[in-house]
Amino acid sequence: AQPALVVSVSSDNLYPPHEQELLARHLPNASYRLLETDDGHDGFLIKTGPLSALIGEFRRSLEPAASAVAA
Which of 18, 41, 43, 45 allows an S-S link to 9, with CB 3.0 to 4.6 Å? Predict the structure, then answer.
């Protein structure tokens, strides 16, 4: 199974974090991260810096062998 990142917004009432956690638990090879914001469903559009950091962290976690070779 391909790796997947599920990100939820802490204040999202349309797709609440508990539903996104459930999704991540049932997707093979999924990681779950919570984006903390009071901006509701649009939080991922407003907090692009923190979201980008979560995505970057996930992407780096997929390349441990490349990091070891570079060291």
Answer: 43
Q: Which two tokens stand for residue 16?
A: 């609440």
pTM of the predicted model as reported, rounded to 2 decimal places? 0.84
- Here the tokens at position 59 are 């992407």
Model pLDDT for residues 36-45, shown as the tens digit of each residue = 999 999 999 9
Q: Are 55 and 4 in contact (CB under 8 A)?
A: no
Beta-carbon contacts of 12 under 8 Å, excluding residues fewer than 6 positions away, are 40, 41, 43
CA 40 to chain centroid, in Å, comes to: 16
Secondary structure of residue 20 in the 3-state scheme: helix
Cβ–Cβ < 8 Å for 31, 60: no
